[in-house]
Specification:
Elements (H helix, E strand, L loop, with lengths): L2 E5 L3 E2 L5 E8 L7 E7 L6 E6 L6 E3 L7 E6 L4 E6 L8 E8 L7 E4 L3 E5 L2
Parallel strand pairs: 2-11
Antiparallel strand pairs: 1-3, 3-8, 4-5, 4-9, 5-6, 7-8, 9-10, 9-11
Length: 120
């Protein structure tokens, strides 16, 4: 059974940092493309970042490029999203997800999400 458990969401001031974690069970991280997407109230889902099976390819949305970093620890079966220089517009529920083949595919599995709120 595939399961994602996200953690690390919190209330943070603008300019602050957070690290999101996603513990994955049901498959090994070197078998699927993984990533994060977010959804804010009243807005469409936005793909934030992806990392390939090998870890050699990463994707970032323009809105987070240079501020967010995706990584994974295959030994811990955990995916991370380091978020720096956070802005109020980063406020959303962040979901960890897997993709069948490529980052451009729709997600096939995802977790319940973790809330990130950026506010002073």
């Amino acid at each position: 059974q595939v399961q994602f458990v996200e953690s690390g969401g919190d209330l943070v001031q603008p300019g602050g940092s957070l690290r999101l974690s996603c513990a994955v069970s049901g498959f090994t991280l070197d078998s699927k493309t993984l990533g994060w997407f977010r959804q804010a109230p009243g807005k469409e889902r936005e793909k934030v970042s992806c990392i390939s099976k090998s870890g050699g390819y990463t994707y970032y949305a323009d809105s987070v490029k240079g501020r967010f970093t995706i990584s994974k620890d295959n030994a811990k079966n955990t995916v991370y999203l380091q978020m720096n220089s956070l802005k109020p517009e980063d406020t959303a529920v962040y979901y960890c997800a897997s993709y069948r083949f490529f980052c451009s595919d729709p997600p096939d599995y995802w977790g319940q999400g973790t809330q990130v709120t950026v506010s002073s």
